Amino acid sequence: MTDDEAAIRQVVETWMVASRKGDLETVLDLMTDDVVFMVPGKEPFGKQAFAAAFKGMGKSKVDGASEIVELKLFGDWAYIRNRIDVTATPPGGEPVRRSGYTLTLLRKESDGRWRLARDANLLAG
Q: At 123, is the secondary structure helix, strand, or coil?
């Protein structure tokens, strides 16, 4: 495994841990400023809309697992195909489970860090 591959795997792990903790600041730092998210049934959205949705989850407990199925590097760009299983449980509410695949493009930025730049999330309930 190359240093870049290890760094990308660490981005995914850090994202999952920060999501479990509700640590929005860390999650946002893992994204480029021009990040674009695509999810079924919605217009593509960026970092500000992601942050608003994250905050909108309130005190929901998020837990999940992520498995990188494929990772390819192309210079300062890379993609991962990821299998994700996530459960969100609102306080006093029933858990909502989503699972499926994402296709994520990452970009190595001028500070040498890999960050998520584009994400197509195909999770289903």
A: coil
Q: Which two tokens stand for residue 17?
A: 């841990």
Encoding tokens for residue 97? 């489970």
- Over residues 79-104, the pLDDT tens digits come to 999 999 999 998 888 999 999 999 99
Task: Say if residues 68 and 76 touch (Cβ distance below 8 Å).
Answer: no
Q: Please compute the mean of the pLDDT values over residues 56-72 and round it to a whole number.
A: 91
Q: How far is it, in rounded angstroms, from Cα 74 to Cα 57?
A: 35
The pLDDT of residue 125: 64
The residue among 76, 68, 81, 78 whose CA lies nearest residue 121 is: 81
Average pLDDT taken over every residue of the chain: 94
Which two three-digit tokens encode residue 34? 């021009």
* H or E stretch covering 24: helix 24-29
3 contacts 85 by C-beta, under 8 angstroms: no
For 3, the token pair is: 């240093």
Residues in Cβ contact with 64 at an 8 Å cutoff, skipping those fewer than 6 apart: 16, 19, 20, 84, 85, 86, 87
